[in-house]
Amino acid sequence: MSSLRAWLLAVIALIPVAGMAQHVDVPYLTGRVVDNAEILKPDTRRRITDLLRQHEQGTGNQIAVLSTRTLQGESVEEFAVRVFEQWKLGHKGKDNGVLLVVVPQDRRMRIEVGYGLEGALTDAQASRIIRNVIAPRFKEGDYDGGLVQGVTAIIAQLEGNAAPPADGPEQDQAGASSPREELIKAPDMSLHEKVLFGAFIFGIIGLFTFIGIVTPGVGWFLYFFLIPFWAMFPVVIFGSSITFYILICYLAGFPVAKLLVSRSGVYRKAAEDIKKKGHAKLGGFTVGSSGNSSSGSSWSSGSSSSSSFSGGGGSSGGGGASGSW
User: Fold this and answer.
1) What is the helix, strand, coil percentage profile of the chain, to 5?
2) How much is the pTM?
């Protein structure tokens, strides 16, 4: 058991290394609109700048717009946090800044919100602005219209006179996202994040599932023990709709696989060894009972090493939402 614990910790330690990407340099803050990707017309840049200046003069909130052509594999969430921290948007003690990042080549965007404005511009509201206002125009190649309307919606939301966007299929009759729709939608992550989280999640519960299938006695305990994990963990990658079918496959597939494996000579020999000797070896694992075959089972890998794990905390500078088009 101790070596399995060490293996899990090793996987956790390797995830940041595997997910490392080349970081794009944070550009200088040259104005309220930094259009490094050159997706806006000069008149549009001036119009957005005027909107943001007027909003700051009236409320004190600082909003900036940044476009960069590509992030070279880095997630838009990580990049937005780095920009937000370096640009220091908002006033000290108020944290009333907002950053809108657009990455046209990666077809990704994010609204990063400072702590002080999270109540006025919630994650759900930022997500609706991206999904219902900006993304439809970006899909048509209209970056100018998308950013003008997006900035206008952000300002209206912060000033408390916004009408919920009505052109999104995800909204109910009251103009807000349906809780059911939010539940079945997978979290918005980049492809490499989904691959890394998927490898981690399915590596762990897949290992325990395999042990349950090939292990006499303890296998059925693991079958029931893993049900809540198969019901919840895949939601992080696929959303609840696909996860439901994954759970059904697990509930039906485990007993079938267990039945097939139990017919093999190796499995029968292991079960017999447990009855006679109190333990058996399966691959690198030692399987044993805690007295007799009916009183339960345990397993270990034969290693005596032990490890401990501890972690710290951090902050991203605020909430927000991401999206694509």
Assistant:
1) 50, 15, 35
2) 0.49
